């Protein structure tokens, strides 16, 4: 698994319009800032609200809603794989950050497999306090307090519901 992630980070992006390999970093940043997901900003609140409801349900009912949570996570990662890593622009035509697609599809497959086998334990009452240090990091990742127009931190609490693109879209 680690090898796949490691290799995925070194797979170059592909574009229908050629570019100099020394511009790979610029192409990746361009794709990520012009990806298809930006056109879907009106749907951000729906996805975030569903995720918040599922997370609260998971905390309350644990394994009884775990399959639904795992399916939601897997399907979300499939969407992330293509919507966040693909752009159609005048500059490079169709561009794909291939490594991101591979890594996100691997994560999606892992969640979908969990939905089938259900080996995880989602009850919080048995969680060791020493493992809860990741919770603030998960909240920060979900919140994503970054202004997409200025790439600067922006801790607007509305981002918990809509994500930054939902409030900054033009």
UniProtKB/TrEMBL annotation:
Could you tell me what this protein is called?
Uncharacterized protein
Taxonomic lineage from the root: Archaea, Thermoproteota, Thermoprotei, Thermofilales, Thermofilaceae
Q: Which organism is it from?
A: Thermofilum adornatum
Which of UniProt's keywords are assigned here? Membrane, Transmembrane, Transmembrane helix
* Segments passing through the bilayer: 41-61, 68-89, 101-118, 130-146
Q: Does the keyword Transmembrane apply?
A: yes
């Amino acid at each position: 698994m680690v090898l796949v992630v490691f290799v995925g980070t070194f797979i170059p992006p592909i574009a229908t319009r050629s570019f100099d390999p020394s511009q790979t970093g610029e192409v990746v940043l361009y794709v990520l800032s012009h990806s298809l997901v930006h056109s879907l900003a009106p749907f951000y609140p729906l996805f975030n609200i569903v995720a918040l409801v599922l997370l609260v349900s998971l905390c309350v009912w644990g394994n009884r809603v775990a399959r639904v949570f795992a399916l939601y996570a897997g399907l979300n990662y499939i969407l992330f794989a293509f919507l966040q890593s693909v752009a159609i622009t005048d500059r490079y035509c169709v561009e794909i950050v291939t490594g991101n697609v591979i890594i996100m599809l691997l994560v999606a497959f892992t969640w979908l497999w969990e939905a089938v086998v259900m080996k995880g334990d989602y009850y919080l009452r048995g969680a060791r306090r020493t493992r809860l240090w990741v919770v603030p990091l998960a909240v920060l990742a979900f919140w994503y307090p970054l202004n997409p127009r200025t790439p600067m931190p922006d801790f607007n609490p509305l981002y918990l519901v809509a994500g930054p693109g939902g409030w900054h879209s033009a």
